[in-house]
Design a protein that fits this description.
The protein has a single domain, classed as Ribonuclease Z/Hydroxyacylglutathione hydrolase-like (Metallo-beta-lactamase, Chain A). It is 36% helix and 16% strand. The protein has helices at residues 34-50, 65-80, 109-128, 136-139, 147-153, 189-205, 216-228, 247-253, 265-268, 290-300, 321-326, 346-354, 370-374, 378-384, and strands spanning 2-6, 14-19, 25-31, 57-59, 89-90, 175-177, 180-186, 272-277, 280-284, 307-309, 331-334, 361-365, 386-390, 397-400. The strands form 2 sheets. The protein has an 8-stranded mixed beta sheet with strand order 6-7-8-9-10-11-12-13. It is globular, with a radius of gyration of 21 Å. Residues 11-89 form the Metallo-beta-lactamase domain.
C-alpha cells in the first residue's frame, strides 16, 4: 500500500509518502511554512514515532521559504526534544556548492558584522512571512537558526547516500532505501553551479569584496539571502481570463503554445525524484525545470506514472507541451492556494489532460482556486475524462494507491 498526504501549505509544498503495510517506510518531501508544520505535519510525525516507525528519508528540495520554513522549525523542535528518528536528510546548502574555491583566510570583523546583519534581516523576513504573529525572540538573530546549522547541531545523516556531498544527478544509478528505488532527476552539476554563481553575484552587487571561505556565517547568510531574494522575475501571470465566457476556447487553443521556460536559479536547483515501490511509480518534481526532467526520464527510460506532483505549483513555465506528453499518469497533484502568481496556470493543466485524453484521470488540488474552478466544468471533465478532487485548506488530502 502507498499513501500520499498533500498538506495545506499555502503557496508551498509539503508531502508525506508512506509505503508498505507493516514496518512502513516514510519519505517526507518539504515542510511548507512554519504553520504547515505546526498545524498539520507535526501531529502525523508524532503518530509515526508512536508506531515505532521513523522518517526514512527527508528531502528539502531547495531553498525557497515555501518549501524550507517548516523544515527549519521541525528540525529545531527535534533537536530540543527528539521525538522522531530520521534516517537521512537530503538538502543542498552552501557547503555543498563546490565550483568556487573556498579560501582558508579568516574573515575580517567588518565582514563578520555585515554577514551577521544579513542573517538578522533574513531571520526577521522569514518569520514575518511564516506566521500571522511573531514574538520578539523570533525576530532576533539566533546563531545556528538555519536548516544547515540545525542539521549539523543534531548530527543528522546529511546527504549520506552522496557521501556528505551535494545531492546531484551525475549518472542514472538508482538509490535504494531497502526495496524502495529512487531515481534522482534534478539537479545536475550545471544547475548547482548556477546557484553558486547567483550567490557570488549577489555578494558583488552589494559591493562586498569577501574572501569566500568555510566560516559558518556563510552557511547561515547564504541560506537566508536565498530566501530573501527569491527570484520571481520570470513569473508570467496567465492572460487567460478566468471569468471569460470564451475562456475554455482560448484555453484549448493554448495546448501546443510554447511559453518561455522557467529560468529561476533557485527552482533549477530543486531536488526532483522518481520513487518506485513494487510496481508503483511516483514523480515528485518540486519546482524543477522542464528540460532536465525530460532528459532524465528519457535517459532512464521511464514513462506512465501512477502519480505526478506537478512542478512549481502548476506554473506554465515548468510544464511545456513536450514534458506534458512525457507525464502520462492517472493522478496529478497541484499544491498551492493560488494567492501567489495565481498558480496553477490553466495552460499547464490543459496540456496534461490533452496529452492523455482517453485515460481516466484525477486532478488533486489542496485548495479551491480560480483555476480549479475552471476545471469543475462538466464539459471539460467529459471531454478529457477526468475527475477533480479539491481540498478545503483545513486538512491534508490523502491519496491511496
Amino acid at each position: 500500500m502507498v499513501q500520499i498526504k498533500m498538506y495545506p501549505a499555502k503557496n508551498g509544498d509539503c508531502f508525506l509518502i508512506s509505503l508498505g503495510e507493516i514496518e512502513k517506510k516514510h519519505i517526507l518531501i518539504d515542510c511548507g511554512y512554519i504553520d504547515t508544520y505546526e498545524n498539520f505535519l507535526k501531529r502525523d510525525l508524532v503518530k509515526i514515532a508512536e508506531c515505532n516507525e521513523k522518517i526514512n528519508l527527508m528531502i528539502v528540495t531547495h531553498i525557497d521559504s515555501d518549501h524550507i520554513s517548516g523544515a527549519i522549525k521541525f528540525i529545531e523542535d527535534n533537536n530540543k526534544n527528539k521525538f522522531i528518528e530520521i534516517d537521512e536528510v537530503w538538502f543542498n546548502a552552501y557547503r555543498h556548492l563546490q565550483s568556487f574555491k573556498k579560501d582558508e583566510d579568516e574573515l575580517q570583523e567588518i565582514e563578520k558584522d555585515l554577514l551577521e546583519r544579513e542573517i538578522a534581516l533574513g531571520k526577521s523576513h522569514l518569520n514575518r512571512y511564516n506566521r500571522d504573529e511573531i514574538t520578539k525572540d523570533e525576530i532576533s538573530a539566533k546563531q545556528g537558526s538555519t536548516l544547515g546549522a540545525l542539521l549539523l547541531q543534531g548530527n543528522y545523516n546529511w546527504n549520506g547516500k552522496f557521501n556528505g556531498g551535494p545531492v546531484v544527478s551525475k549518472d542514472n544509478k538508482p538509490i535504494y532505501i531497502d526495496e524502495i528505488k529512487i531515481n534522482l532527476l534534478s539537479p545536475d552539476e550545471d544547475k548547482l553551479n548556477k546557484l553558486e554563481a547567483k550567490w557570488v553575484k549577489e555578494l558583488k552587487k552589494k559591493k562586498w569584496n569577501f574572501t569566500i571561505n568555510k566560516n559558518e556565517l556563510f552557511d547561515d547568510a547564504y541560506e537566508y539571502m536565498q530566501m530573501m531574494y527569491e527570484d520571481d522575475s520570470n513569473i508570467t501571470v496567465s492572460d487567460i481570463s478566468r471569468q471569460s465566457q470564451e475562456g475554455t476556447k482560448i484555453l484549448e487553443e493554448s495546448i501546443e503554445i510554447e511559453f518561455p521556460i522557467d529560468e529561476s536559479v533557485n527552482n533549477g536547483s530543486s531536488i526532483a525524484i522518481l520513487i518506485k515501490s513494487n510496481e508503483t511509480k511516483l514523480l515528485f518534481l518540486a519546482d524543477a525545470h522542464p528540460n532536465i526532467i525530460i532528459d532524465k526520464l528519457r535517459e532512464i527510460g521511464e514513462e506512465n506514472f501512477d502519480l505526478v506532483k506537478v512542478s512549481h505549483h502548476g506554473s506554465l513555465k515548468n510544464t511545456n507541451y513536450e514534458l506534458a506528453s512525457n507525464l502520462q499518469s492517472t493522478k496529478y497533484l497541484f499544491s498551492t492556494n493560488g494567492f501567489k502568481h495565481l498558480h496553477p496556470d490553466p495552460q499547464t493543466i490543459i496540456k496534461l489532460l490533452a496529452a492523455n485524453p482517453m485515460c481516466e484521470k484525477q486532478l488533486y488540488f489542496n485548495y479551491k482556486t480560480e483555476t480549479s474552478n475552471i476545471f469543475e466544468s462538466t464539459e471539460l471533465q467529459n471531454k478529457y475524462n477526468y475527475k477533480i478532487i479539491t481540498g478545503n485548506g483545513e486538512m491534508p488530502i490523502v491519496i491511496e494507491l
